[in-house]
Amino acid sequence: MFIEIKDIKKDFGFGDNVTHALSGASFCMDKGEMVVLLGPSGSGKSTLLNIIGGIESADGGSVCINGEAVHGMTEKERIAYRRNHLGYVFQSYNLIPNLTVRENIEVGAYLSKNSLDVDELLGVLGLEKHKNKIPSQLSGGQQQRTSIGRAIVKNPDLLLCDEPTGALDSDTSKQILELIEKVKETYGTSVIMVTHNEKIAEMADKIIRLKDGRIISDEKNADKIKAGELQL
Amino acid sequence: MRNPLFKRLKREFVRDIAKYIVIFLFLALPIALCSGYMIGNDSMIRTYNEAIDKYVLEDGHFQTMFALTDEQVGKIEKNENIKVSRLFYKDELTEKDHTVRVYDMADRGDVNLWCVHKGVMPKSDGEIALDRLYCENNKISVGDDFAFGGKTYKVIAFISVFDYSCLYKRNTDTMFNAQTFTVALVTDGAFGEIGDGNLVYNYAYGFPTKTDEKQAHEKNAELRKNLYGFCLENSNMLSDFLAREDNQAINFSITDIEGDLTMMLIFGALIVGGLAFVFALSIKSQIESETGSIGTLKAMGYGNGELLAHYLLLPTLVTLLAGAVGNILAYTVLKEYLVGLYYHSYSLPTYTTYYNAKALIFTTIIPILLVLFINVFILIRSLKIPALNFLRGDLRKRKNKKVVKLSQKIPFMSRFRARVIGQNKGTYFALFFGTFFACVILLFGLMMSPLLDHYKEAVIKSQLAPYQTILKADIPVSDDGAEKLYFIQLTYGLDDVMVFGVEKTGKESKYLADLPLESGKVTVNNSLYEKYGLKAGKKFTMKQKFDDGEYPFEVGKVFANDGSLIVFMDADYFLTTFKDGEYLVSYLSEKRLTVDETYIYKTVTIDDLTSTSDQLTSSMGDVFVLFTAFSIVLFVLLIYLLAKIVVEKNAGQISMMKILGYKTREINRAYNVPTGIVVMISIVVNTLLSQFLIKLLWNIVVPLRMRGWISFYVAPYLFPLIMGIGFLSYLAVYFIESVKISKIPLSKTLKEGSF
């Protein structure tokens, strides 16, 4: 088992104002799989992703990735964990505005001793022509490609994507999802993707549905289709 | 309904308390300093001007080689329409070789009155009143014994006399000397008991009616010529003539005080100008960090006026508070301290504090209005951007700006830092400008002590002989090894220049073996060359001190000699240029000349030459410390405020980098080190620029403000020292910002989205 998540609990607020963001979420995934966390707004899917990514800590339960227990890590170990194993893609890209496309990808490459070749990756991402532009000179899709490049250039074991197409039109969204799929297949990267879009879930190996902080279903996707075939 | 945004103010204040404290200090300290200076300064100037009448200040004085008879005085008074008062003095030496200029109290009954600072005036012949500043410098108390000329007196009062508000022993001295020179008042009987060996026949004069500067100048020129002629006609010699307008002992203090005011206003204007720029950056950074909130408020229908009022309120309150605290400090602590600096340099009469509106306008109201204007301007300009752009976090005016291409051969982290510097160029420009200002003050504060030491060493090295004696008459001198020179004092520019006719040079001379002389030309010393640019081949004209005589010369050589301004020529050229009776003779010797003291006009010793640097070190020492301390505080505050802007501006990116797995150390290298690089480059460049600026100002201001010349010199060790101070200031800020970076939450980027 590549990832094993057991009984994760997370509350926000205090006293009467407490919100149970996660009330005992558990699931597993194998290496190289793509898992989609699907659910409406406020279901706890992003919180779960952040706990897996070591950005937030859980109030209870455990997260083990490749045999490493994330929940018991010190801050220093968490940094090393994020640095060595994870790649992040956000809805809002979060690129560094004063760096060029190439340099933004190098921000990720700097962290790894075995990073992918940046120029080769620019080709894979379709950003070769734009490599010397800064984010404000790019379209949303190009920015998200850059963000994906930054996440995968360090060749992470696990790619965490939080609504990666949330800010994009359907055609561009499909291109981005195809790219994530290509990355997964080319580099063997495991992917956990958060979305509220049922259609996107169709490209996953496994679909985990959340509602009000609980996992309501955890199923293998028998009808998996290619990203290019998605009807977004 | 009250603007609900105001409820955020307390939270915003607490959140940004460090920034507001720095801005408060940045405003309050210069306001306190400038306001304190202006209040103290203005009070001193008004006190000085009132003192002219209150203490019946002379319009000038003159000295004769021999005493004038009452009849001669009467003739002068009648012919020249002036009032002449006897004001003889005797220059006596103490055991420590300090000069005591003793006056008869009885002579100061109707001119140059005294001001008592402590004690009561002498009534018996064994009592003496001494200058307050000299006593402070030499730790003499009222009641102490004070001895000279074989007699001991009881110090019974500390006084100041307005004709020595600045203790110049001779008007030709480069600097006053309150360390080893004092004025003393004794009773008529005590004055008579002192031997007449060092008696100077000095007469003060006053015009019967008030004259303006132009009239006084014309009258003085006429009087000088007439007295010169009158003395020659009466077998006497006018040995000195000094109008009040030319008397450094009277004018130096007020010129200095007035000059300081100008300097302080320029200093204040520069600080406030720089501060306004920093303010602008700070408020811009705040708007950039709150684009989401502003966008939402604008979208909800909040008008620009309401937003403006909100964002303006805190800076306005902080600015007003800084103004109030600055003025309270100015009127209490600072004024006393800064006036104390003047009293530590000058023998001024007691002063009264005058409250003036000018200080409030210049040091408080204008800076506050300027800061507020800058804030309003930046805010109005920023708030004009549409709500949608705020919501998108896109406040840039030019979207397709050209990207500077950086070679991929440059390591990634170096390129990253270069981009950070490019992104924050406005902030770093402010840092460069601010460090330039801090460097100028710091260099000035640090350089003066070594400069004065260097000057002292150069002067000691340049001393022609252990004793240089000028005689009133060409009497036979039998001292072994004493070398004779011909001497006349001429004027050039503002200065008195000592002109020597040299009989022996080369191997024949013990003291002037290295002096180069050219026939028919003169040799100028290094001080004269540096001050007036008199290089070889340059022609110049010196003037007689007391009449219209002019003497054109050509410079042959420059002689490596510092200190007084000196011209040398061979004896033959000297004797053909000047008429008998115009000049005196001077001797260079190993020991004090063994001649009748009544023939000695002046003896120049090593103490006379080094007194300038000793006095400047004493009276300016506290100012140097103040300058150094202020500039270090400025360094730290400036670097802190601007480094803070860089880190806060990039907090979202820093949070993102943390998520990616960057360690705090690496983030510091990316965002904190660029500030360090800019600080160090700024300090290196600005230290050099400061040196050029100070040298330029030195060459402009010193010739206008100071007789003689002190060569500009910056001790080489100051460069690494300033860089070290700058680096340590940066390190302190690096540590603070490093802690701040480590505290930026990972969730910031998740909550705020794009940056």
The low-confidence parts of chain A are none
| Count of domain modules of chain A | 1
Structural class of chain A: alpha/beta
Q: β content of chain A, as a range? A: 25-35%
Helix/strand/pairing category of chain B: alpha+beta
Number of strands of chain B: 20
Instruction: Give me the count of strands of chain A.
Output: 10
Helix percentage range of chain B:
40-55%
Cα-to-Cα separation, first versus last residue of chain B: 34 Å
How would you state the average pLDDT of chain B, rounded? 86
Number of helices of chain B: 20
Describe the structure.
The complex is a heterodimer of chains A (232) and B (755). By secondary structure, chain A is of the alpha/beta class. Chain A has a single domain, classed as Rossmann fold (3-Layer(aba) Sandwich), CATH 3.40.50. In chain A, 31% of the residues lie in helices and 27% in strands. Chain A has helices at 45-52, 75-85, 101-109, 118-125, 140-152, 170-187, 198-201, and strands at residues 3-12, 19-29, 34-38, 60-65, 68-69, 86-90, 158-162, 190-195, 206-211, 214-220. In chain A, a hairpin with a 6-residue loop joins β1 and β2 (19-29). Chain B is α+β, with helices and mostly antiparallel strands and 755 residues long. Among the domains of chain B are: 1-51 and 260-394, no CATH class; 53-252, no CATH class; 467-604, no CATH class. Chain B has 20 helices and 20 strands. Chain B has helices at residues 8-15, 17-54, 70-80, 132-137, 188-193, 213-233, 248-289, 291-300, 304-343, 357-383, 387-391, 412-423, 425-462, 526-532, 571-577, 606-649, 651-660, 664-705, 718-743, 747-752; strands at residues 60-64, 83-86, 89-93, 99-104, 114-119, 127-131, 145-148, 151-161, 181-186, 199-206, 238-243, 467-471, 483-492, 495-502, 522-525, 539-544, 550-559, 566-570, 584-589, 600-604. In chain B, β3 (89-93) and β4 (99-104) form a beta hairpin. Chain B is elongated and about 100 Å long.
